[in-house]
Amino acid sequence: MTRSRPRIVYNALPLSPRGGGVSTYIRGLLAAMVATVDADLVAAVRPAGSAELPAGIRPLVKGQSQGMRRALTGAVGFGPADLTHGLDVDLPLRRAGLMVSTVHDMAIFDVPWAFPKHRVLGERVVVRNALRRADAIIAVSSFTAERVRALVGRDPLVIHPAPGTEMTPPADAEIARVRSHYGLPERFVLHVGNIEPRKDLGTLAEACRSVSIPLVLTGHGLWANRAPGGVVEIGHVPLSDLPALYGAATLVGYASRYEGFGLPPVEAMACGAPVVTTAVPAVVEVVGDGAETFAAGDVDGLARTLRELIGDEQRRAELAARGSERVSSLGWQQTAEATAGVYRSVGLAV
Which long-range contacts (CB under 8 A, 24 or more apart) does 285-288 make? Predict the structure, then answer.
């Protein structure tokens, strides 16, 4: 018996209430897809991700898993589908209809030193398999698309994500509440993201120390990595607090040595915060002139930029205005429409 509408199954196993760039992508894309395609939409999630799904997406709850165990769950597959979309690369080994894969970065190939050694080989196998078998590949930036072409010889379509819909300029009362709740310094540089090698928090911390401004870190350490000494750690921050946290910061700093897109600078700009970031290709592609940039690992260059901006309120305001304008063109509806176009290009009538 033929279904009246196609069945699209999303591998949304990475979705987590703790946030992160991939979770933001999953949450934003699925919410917009509900009104964009005429299809039955199903998302495979872990138990904690089920409550994160928007109305109109039916959950297919799988067991709790992490890392390679999560990849194995995805490899087994999710039953019948006219199209399966791996929202973080992974696709089933057994084909069930058409397959589309979204690539967020190729870090496991480009910066293997940033990961535990035991993860590198297995994840490379999973990524290569998915990218070779997908009927179409979506890359979140031109830089990531170039890396896919170089490594597996496939030609992805570039579709930029967007900041979460909650990332808007906060009210003064919200900023005051968040300042009080987290005991924030009067002036500080903010870094949003987990503590891991490629984020290069050592460079950011050293530059902040040299200009005598506190560095506030969100997130938690991955793979036993720890924050540099002398910083203020506030741990995991609910999404509802992030806009006001960005709004409270004197500057938002991002010293990452490698990104596939770079969501935190984009979020900060959407919330009206002035941003200083490394000039890595994927980040510059998106932020353009909406952020001040410096060379990765350049403590002195970053310190000079911080010193100049901290002492010039008007320049910070101008930078924040440019940032807001720059990211205003990013939106989940455009992302969803372009994604639906990919589905149609491989033969799915939606």
Answer: 285/141, 285/142, 285/143, 286/141, 286/160, 286/261, 286/262, 286/327, 286/330, 287/262, 287/323, 287/326, 287/327, 288/326
In three-state secondary structure terms, 85 is: strand
Type of residue found at 136: A
Q: How far apart are CA 73 and CA 304, in angstroms?
A: 48
DSSP state of 348: -
At residue 2, the 3 state secondary structure works out as: coil
Is pLDDT larger for residue 287 or for residue 77?
287
Which tokens go with 190?
């903010």
CB distance 236 to 219 below 8 Å: yes
pLDDT in tens, 64-82: 666 666 666 667 778 899 9
Strands in 215-218's sheet, in edge-to-edge order, are 232-235, 215-218, 189-191, 251-254, 275-278, 292-294
Tokens 């799904």 identify what position? 53
Q: Which domains does the chain possess?
A: 7-162+331-345 (3.40.50.2000), 172-327 (3.40.50.2000)
Whether the model pTM is above 0.85: yes
